[in-house]
Amino acid sequence: MNKLDYLQALKRMGAFQLTKPFAKNKLLILCYHAFELKDECQFRPSLFQKQATFRKRLEMLLSTGYRVLSLDDAISQLKANQLRGLNAVITIDDGFQSVYQLAYPVLKFFKLPATVYITSYFQTKQTPVFQLAVQYMFWRSKHSTLDLSIIQSLVGDNTISFSNNRYELMQQLIKLGNEAEHNEFREALAEAIGHMLGEDYQRIRDEKLFTLMTDDQLSDPLDGLIDIQLHTHRHQLPLSEEGTIREINENRQALTRIKSGHLNHFCYPSGEWDLQHWSWLQQAGITSATTCQSGFVNSRSQLLALDRILDGENLAEIQFEAELHGVGELARKIKKLANYTQNIKYLMHGRRPIGSEAISNR
């Protein structure tokens, strides 16, 4: 029996109602990224979701009995240990165009608040996120042999040795573009990569598949339902005090053009973080920070490392329903207890505990 069949069996036996207490008096923070405008769910189902799926998720959330709070209200109640019943917050990372076109209408229909964490570099440039666009073109391309001459001509550096391996070549080109000082070069490189692969990069630009929202779209409060917050400027968080504070300050400065009010909630880019970041985030005026670690949040949770449940087209409906009913939370508690018991045994026999080599919580 696979995992999905097992969950279906649990539901039929009424186990979902029995596990529901594991979801109560806590906070479920849902995480979304982008929505399908063309065929992105086939390309990256963990990152993208169909509008119909998103609508169904929110219907399930409400029918299960959750009240959906703004992030500000949720953090306030969390700190005061006042969360009662089933509580949820909706967060959306990055701020893609598809969020405005497809997610906003659904949120408005249900009158549900959401926090959108904006990464600001590509938002200000209004060009596709380079890495995603390149990965997408490699995914779509049917070319078996690749002519690198146009890339070599653009780069103008004969010392660069490009790999013959398709995946390694893609990674090389992404690294080359990400390290470029000017976005104009990145755009020219993306155009050249598209030509090499037989893909139309201009079409990707025109269809705004990987382009972030405009200033006007970000300024739309959606009847007061949308709260714009921080996600770094370049979608990276260096492991240094100077780099961390610079990323947040540049992000905040870019978003201040668009939004008035407090910019004090933060989302770790790619969910990567380290314990050292906490003091630097506090210096930068951050009140809460969300990760990509799975779990519910309670009054004992660290506000600068809040767990979330990531939802995408890859997550089956029964898996989402199981999370709403606390099945996933119970499973995580059992696993944590099992690891704790195993570690006690390791220590008794003089062995290194599980995870003791880690110095961060990435």
From TrEMBL:
UniProt keyword Signal, yes or no: yes
Record-annotated NodB homology domain positions: 224-287
Database matches in CDD domains: CE4_NodB_like_5s_6s
Entry-linked InterPro entries: Glyco_hydro/deAcase_b/a-brl (IPR011330), NODB_dom (IPR002509), Polysacch_Deacetylase (IPR051398)
Subcellular location: Secreted
Keyword Signal: yes
Highest taxon above the source species: Bacteria
Primary residence: secreted
Keywords noted in UniProt: Signal
Membrane-traversing stretches: none
Designated name of the protein: Polysaccharide deacetylase family protein
